[in-house]
Amino acid sequence: MTTTDEAPAAGTVLHGAGVGRGAAVGPVVRVRPAPAVAGDAPVVRDGAPVAAADLPDAVAAAFADVAAALRDQAGRAEGTVAEVLGATAMMADDPALRDQVLTAVRGGEPPVAAVDAAVGAFAAVFEQAGGYLAERVTDLRSVRDRVVARLAGLPAPGVPELREPSVVVARDLAPADTAALDLARVLALVTEEGGPTGHTAIIAGQNGIPCVVRATGATALAEGTDVAVDAAAGTVTVAPDAAQRAALAARAEAARALEADTDPGATADGHPVALLANIGTAEDAERLAGAAVEGVGLFRTEVLFLGRQQAPTVDEQATAYARVLRALGPDRKVVVRTLDAGADKPLAFANLHPEENPALGVRGYRLVRSAPELLADQLTALARAGAETGTEPWVMAPMVATPAEARAFAAAVREAGLRTAGVMVEVPAAALRAGAVLDEVDFVSLGTNDLAQYTMAADRLRGELVDLLDAWQPAVLDLVAATARAGAGRPVGVCGESASDPLMALVLTGLGVTSLSMSPAALPAVRFALRRHTLEQCRGMAEAALAVADPAAARAAVAGLLEPEVRAALAV
Question: Which of 1, 30, 90, 316 meets the CB 3.0–4.6 Å disulfide criterion with 312?
Fold first, then answer.
């Protein structure tokens, strides 16, 4: 990572968007930059230039080698990292991209220039499409950089080996970069680009790693310089003084102390609020076997599907689902989200057509319109896994917009032999008609990330729109409140990122939300905040948040009502 900027001086504070509430101090390690290779640079193999006649074969081999390496990384990774690596491998394997490059090379264009031009054209299409595809531009450019490095005979870009606990700094992190991280030695992640709902932020949240994204000036930080990363404040301080180090150490110790409380989630006066975990794989579930978590509120099943040329069989799926149900046992519920994929998360085997606006296209439950067998097989596998383990999974569909869709999904669930059907509330239409939706199903779960995106007409993966995507936006809170009111005693959960914010957790409880699902690392702070406020206090906080005109004022109003002990412990 080269930069012409001078390294920030000691005491300089960089500001960005924080992910989580953790903090850490440590030396900077910078991600290796993409290779600076001229467009007409020679292609090298085994240290010798490749003859002109052999260039097409060398280019095809470079793409194949990059795809194979990414698939190998995906096979050794878990959870969301495995998912995004598999999808990135599919990009490197994409015949349309490869053929466009090969056509240019056979026409006499230098291979490096051809790769750069083809990826640039694809990236422009992705950015114009928005949604998930816009986020994949980082991954697409990672493929380009790896292919170019291979053609030039240079080391692949990425994270160097971490020899000590370090703060990893990058312009942005591609999935292959995150997969290469030795998480045991990652103190914090800092990026100059990206957003709070991008894959870097998700990986950080899942692993309890302090993270600050969109930190302007981060790429100018000097290698080896100590920095203090404070996710709660969204700051990166260069060469922190002794006082700041001591304060952050004390905060970390206080956070560890919160883990001693393993009681079920509840307010100070005993009102129950189920505290659940978000997972993506059977391995994630098995790590929860002895954890202080009351179940799983969101099992993302996409990992089984993405990055594959053929859909997983019913047997494969049943085996994976049974592992999850067995790990949690019969006394802890598991809420399974059916496949949340489509044109914006391309599936090679679904034969979906390209869409101009995939965020508003055939995704989630809407896949029944073009590939109904995917849902049918998934429900069959879940029913088989439930019968095998003697447990009953809850099943919910993403991207449901109407009561009619909810009714059709519930009928399919029950026809498969499963009893408990629900839907995600991510579309404003579903929130506005939540009562009618709940008349068709047994529960709903609010996906606040997508709900904010669709309410505010702001792509959740565009970091520069982070202010519009704030879960404290009054319009988003109004829709959450409307959904919770419609629940009228029926289960209404939240499984978006807002559930992991202790202050927002209090507001959600006050609105009537009955369960909160989040990354396991976020549970202790949320449990602590709940157990020190009564239900009546939570209702007062909800009223205060709904009464103001902007997100900052809403959060400040709630912070002003916190018990002093909680304010001090959470450094609010």
Answer: 316
